[in-house]
Amino acid sequence: MAGEPACESDEEVPVGCLALPQAEDGDGEAPAEEVDFEALAYQAYAGFSLGAPQISLSPSAEAPVLVQVPVWMWVDADDWEAETATASVPGGSVTVTATPSSVSWDMGDGQSIDCEGPGTAYDPGEHDPAAASPDCGHTYTSTSGGSVDVTASMSWTVEWETSTGEGGSLPELTTATSTAVQVVESSSLATTTR
Considering only CA atoms, which of 126, 105, 130 is closest in space to residue 115? Predict the structure, then answer.
């Protein structure tokens, strides 16, 4: 209509033309919304379901443990493996990795033992039953009232990494499990000769 501004023009767009084109990136597409990768990492972190460590002892917790006899402690090798969780959105993805780092053992007698690894599994074919564990052991010195609860608390370090190479750390996680152990004094038989 005569007198109205021409909207299709190579000149400056007249004020009456309000249908302006959307900004485009170099590929001719609307720019993707920026992804908050750290928030996405926390989303994956919140979805972690880490299993509790399986406790192994020698002597076994199924039989009484004698005072002054070294106890070997370890967690199952399958428990000492990294776990991952991934969260994805159209703009990228984040992978969160939890890695076992240490185990703190509450022995139920007031003593706590910190082990940097899973502990050495006792092998009757290789190890001396009277010897102490080389890296994760404890010796009870009293009966402590009979039965005690042994608790293994495994710590996990947590890191996140994005599909674009960013990354960082998240708060440490802890999983724990307990087992009952009966601690007893060794009995001796006194004999006399005539």
Answer: 105
